[in-house]
């Protein structure tokens, strides 16, 4: 264990959905704390940009495009990481989709895609990385979930279903892979200021309603999720696995 238990020196992390928002912030904070980071999203130019920023700030990173719904792309992501850095210590399943905002009865056709991106892909990537995560007996999986896993919000039905499933997937990973020294935890953010949630925070009435229910009285910033991810990726959280960590300004209280 390094002297500062939050440091990630020598470790290699793959972060999906890392071209912007929460994922980009996680990639940057991991690199600032010594990790070699593989920055991934669907667009090569976008991940190259974040990787270049990290390198310009003295960190180590490179970008690999991968649509997480494409098994071959995920395998390429894992293989390229091994070719470049020779190991995988940390997987952050952060990419997600929410193609519908509307009544449940009109969301049936979208359910399969949502489950594929938000639930199947995290399991598939973890499975592909499993042999490498096992190698050093301290692999880490972080699944970026949501407060929507715990409450039903009108219009977000299928998304909530997928995040509830992701929470249980996290617990199952923790249960089955603890024997390999692998820890799996989920982060459940409330409203964070990113492109993904823009429809919510840019609507004045909706924002007002949301803030009224939030004890801290404000929405969150991507860095506030990334710092929690750093804790969960590092030895600072060595005895935590199967946890569902809220970062929601208190809205679920
Ligand atoms: P964001 O700013 O929109 O970023 C989403 C990232 O995912 C981008 O890098 C996007 O890049 C990538 N992406 C999207 N679909 C992908 C796919 N199929 N394959 C690979 N990459 C994909 O979103 P965010 O708010 O940071 O969200 C990150 C995570 O936080 C998600 O799991 C979301 O459910 C969760 N979350 C967010 C909030 C919030 O209020 N923002 C609240 C709770 C939970 P490309 O377009 O280049 O692929």
Count of helical segments? 8
Bound molecules: NADP nicotinamide-adenine-dinucleotide phosphate
**Low-confidence runs:** none
CATH superfamily: NAD(P)-binding Rossmann-like Domain
The residue fraction in helices comes out at 40-55%
Largest sheet: 7 strands, parallel
Write down the overall mean pLDDT: 97
- The helix/strand class is alpha/beta
CATH-scheme architecture = 3-Layer(aba) Sandwich
| Radius of gyration computed on alpha carbons | 17 Å
The order of strands across the largest sheet is 3-2-1-4-5-6-7
Would you tell me which CATH topology applies? Answer: Rossmann fold
**H/E element string?**
EHEHEHEHEHEHHHE
Question: Which overall shape is indicated by the principal axes computed on the Cα atoms?
Answer: globular
The CATH C-level name is Alpha Beta
**Estimated share of beta-strand residues:** 5-15%
Number of distinct beta strands: 7
Q: How many domain regions?
A: 1
Kindly, what is the distance between the CA atoms of the first and last residues, rounded to a whole number of angstroms? Answer: 35 Å
Short overview:
This protein has 253 residues and is an alpha/beta fold. It has helices spanning 21-32, 44-56, 71-85, 108-135, 157-177, 198-201, 204-212, 222-233; strands spanning 12-15, 36-41, 60-65, 90-93, 140-144, 183-189, 244-247.
Q: What topology emerges from the helices and strands here?
A:
Blueprint: E1 12-15, H1 21-32, E2 36-41, H2 44-56, E3 60-65, H3 71-85, E4 90-93, H4 108-135, E5 140-144, H5 157-177, E6 183-189, H6 198-201, H7 204-212, H8 222-233, E7 244-247
Parallel strand pairs: 1-2, 1-4, 2-3, 4-5, 5-6, 6-7
Helix pairs in contact: 1-8, 3-4, 4-5
The protein binds NADP nicotinamide-adenine-dinucleotide phosphate.
């Amino acid at each position: 264990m390094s002297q500062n238990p939050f440091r990630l020196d020598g470790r290699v992390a793959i972060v999906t959905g890392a071209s912007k928002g929460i994922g980009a912030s996680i990639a940057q904070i991991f690199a600032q704390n010594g990790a070699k980071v593989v920055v991934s999203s669907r667009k090569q130019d976008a991940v190259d940009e974040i990787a270049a920023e990290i390198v310009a700030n003295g960190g180590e990173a490179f970008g690999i495009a991968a649509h997480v719904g494409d098994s071959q792309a995920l395998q390429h992501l894992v293989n390229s990481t091994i070719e470049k850095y020779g190991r995988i210590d940390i997987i952050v399943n952060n990419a997600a989709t929410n193609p519908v905002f509307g009544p449940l009865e009109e969301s049936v056709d979208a359910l399969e895609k949502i489950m594929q991106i938000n639930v199947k892909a995290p399991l598939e990537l973890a499975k592909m990385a499993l042999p490498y995560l096992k190698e050093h007996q301290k692999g880490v999986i972080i699944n970026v979930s949501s407060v929507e896993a715990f409450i039903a919000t009108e219009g977000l039905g299928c998304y909530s279903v997928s995040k509830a499933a992701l929470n249980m997937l996290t617990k199952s990973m923790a249960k089955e892979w603890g024997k390999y020294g692998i820890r799996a935890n989920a982060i459940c953010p409330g409203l964070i200021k990113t492109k993904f949630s823009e429809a919510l925070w840019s609507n004045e009435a909706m924002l007002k309603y949301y803030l009224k229910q939030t004890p801290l009285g404000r929405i969150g910033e991507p860095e506030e999720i990334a710092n929690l991810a750093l804790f969960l990726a590092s030895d600072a959280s060595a005895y935590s696995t199967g946890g569902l960590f809220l970062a929601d300004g208190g809205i679920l209280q």
